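job 3f2a | input accepted
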Amino acid sequence: MLLVTSFRNLRKYSVALILLLVGVFSLVYVGLSLWAQTRLPSDGVLLTEYLAAGLHVATDFDPKEGILAPGDEIVSIDGLTVREWGERAWQNATGPGWQLGETIVYQVRRAQTVFDVPVTLRVFPVERLLLVRFGVYAMVITVLLVGCYMVLRHPEEVASRLIFVMALCLTLILLLHFQVMTLVIPPLFIIENILKFLARALLFSAILHFFLIFPVDKMTAPALAKNLLWLHLVNPVLSLLCGLALGDTPLRMWLLASQVSAWLGLAMLIGGVVSIIHTATTVQKPAVVGQIRWIAWGAAISILPYLVFTGLPELLWGRAILTIEITAFFLVAMPISVAIAVARYRLFDVDTLVVQTFAYLLFALVLLGGYFLLKTVLRGLLPLLFDRANETHITFIATLIIVSVFWVLRAPVSVFARRLIYRDVLDAPRLLQQMTGKLTSALRLDQLNALLIHDLPDQMVAERGVLMVLSEDGGSLVSSADDSAMPSASMLPIHPGITAWLAQGGAPVLYSASPDWASHDLLNLMEQRHIELAVLLRVGERVVGLWGLGPRKGRLSYTTAEVRLIETLALQAALAVENVQLLQRMQADQRNLEEEVQRRTTAMINDRNRLNAILQNMADALLVTDPSGRIQLANPAIERLVRLALRSLLGQDMTEVLPLPKLSEALTLAKANPGMIHTFDVPMVASCLSGSNGVALTEYMLRVSATALGDGSAVIFILRDITHEVEVDRMKSEFISAVSHELRTPLTSIVGFAKLIMRAFERSIKPALPCNDEELQRVVEQIDHNLGIMVAEGEHLTTIINDVLDISALDAGTLVWNDGPCDLRALAQDMVAESRALTDAKGLALVTDFEAAALRLNADCERIRQVLGNLISNAIKFTEYGKITVTLRPLAPGTVHHGWDVPDTGAALVMVKDTGSGITVEGLRHIFQRFHQTVDAFHGKPKGTGLGLAICYEIITHYGGKIWVESTVGQGSSFYFTLPLTE
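job 3f2a | predicted structure (983 res):
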């Protein structure tokens, strides 16, 4: 699956794909070449390929024959020198045509002695080739795998492509460096030499190119960066030009070109080394220094084994400890270390690795010197103790002592390695225990800042850190310290910076090796605050903050172990931050609660003072009692009412202080219905001082309002003296009644005489007038019309006076109720019949919907007719078109209609519905109030006196019924009333 994904990514990068295909074809050719050579006649030895210095035997696969030995120089073959054989190949001459089993003569130089050696050609022993060259093949396979991995996994990186190029070139050089005899096929000899030349030239140019762009791109000028690819042509082109200019034969030209290519390659290698040294000394980023250290470590591991075990022993003693075929295996460290540097994998462990490698290498060299020194000492000491010294015993004792020394000193050496290059040794368990205890006990944000920003970085030899916590709105992370110096870097939005981070797992982020998914906001924050290592503080999946640590001192980097330690501490830090924030919220809530309590206490005191002021200056008497009726609170107005001191009232029974019969009833009703207001008018007789200093009894009228609190803990009574108001109402009612009576008598006469005049005018005067006089006829019509208006308005005024008299009689309680049996159905039919003339005149339909059975009432029939007449006349008055419907329905006993309980004798429901203008919501609130005039929704003109519906309400209420209305503006109104029936 990983390989399929890598190939899908590779399709986007054509250069990487082309390089991969070139590498595949090159390796296929080399494989086919090796396969062909193993089937050609061979001398059974491996030869070096550098023709300018001649051919030397590298390895003899059959040393038992003792014909050729490693180091022998082959001067000529079958009478021709090596140079002549090379010239023949370049001149496209035919091969020698040797066959298996044929014996040819080699002229060999060994230790300045030249002699002829007969060599029988045979099949090359492939099975021994793999064994002898195991190190070379292992290195080749490793280099190729690393190159392919980098170009597949990181095709967008130019450095990855260069790694692949270098891996391919190094593979070709190693595979073609020691070859079997290829003189048999001259074209194969030429092709392999060309491949070696090109691979060597491209290897050095790729190394220089790599160091110019990695780990920091030094080609800042766009023109240089664009033309950097031409660098790869410098070596082969200059080399070939020098060879063509100075060589006289094709072979000579090629040898000169190879030498020039080698020197140019060495110059490019030196230039690359200078470039990376310059980067290491100028760039301050720990990640860049870590990448350079990885490369240096790989180069040292690759070269040191050759120098120690092959190069230096050959130079000093003339014989290598290990052959180059074996030491070539250590070259695998170079491509691996370079790939790690490019991919930034475990980048920050290189410091420890480098230091420990060199420390253990020095330790090994010391132990090796000690081993040889110990053997020398033992050779001189053992003969003194024993008769003779056995070399095997000496070797065994020296080895045992050296191994014991290594085992004893390995821990101090490890500590020494970790302390090298000024790196302090961190005692992780102690630090973790110490910081965990401090974080657990931290209860303030400034304590956390001191621990995470100052103390811990100091112990890790790092610069000051930063701590950011979640903002109050939860939309960003804000700095926990005072950052007025850099306000722009004191906030990090949750979206998208932290969201993208969480989507990747929330692992710590190193600024010097920042991942591709890191958001711009996060990187800007890390740059501005000098954060090298950023760690998310999380409790579960919830982010509570961010902890950043500055760079290590001495351009050192955080190792994986240190990052894991910081991750462990981050868990404790997250809990500490959450605890601190929780404590801050609790303290803030406590302060808010205290402020709220103080505010409400002040408000309560103000309200109490205001209430006391209201109670003290209240004109009405106020009593507050407990449920049993004992007085708990009273205002000064009660003193004037009962003639007793206020303090003597508290705790007394209310009925003893005010012996009014309805007060007990009001107390009972209030307790039974908490929240409802019950009002009674109660007469009270109290004593007062007369003018002669005597005592007189005066009657007062009190309006008592009683209500109980919702929890039933107290009952409030308000007593208001309405004696004057009652007297005024009585006088008003008497005045209105007297005026109405005085008006009705002359009005009756005026209406009566107007009717007589109208009848006499119709019967005697109008027929006697001439019909042909138009002017006279107009006058007659006007008189007739005016007399009709006088009669109608007189009757209307009579109705108004009757309504006023009825209201006055109702208020005074003097209205005469002539109750008796009557049929509500018959009364409704009569009123409908009387109203048809009015509906016909307006073009309205009058519809009835009556039950067949009679509806028996015990009531004043005229008053019921008055209610029906008012409702029907109002419907006609406010309806311009449509119909008026009068409905009668019996109601079953025990049911509830519009909040009214139907008595056991049953009840009747009457509805008068019209299609008129309707009543507004505001009008519905006052519809049954006295003198309220309904406003026409279409014309806006008040109609009527406003007493008709009030009288209807009083009549229906008097007989224990209920009246109500439902209306929609523009659609009409429906008036309902219910009356109890008789059995």
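job 3f2a | The CA atoms of residues 482 and 490 lie 9 Å apart.
job 3f2a | closed
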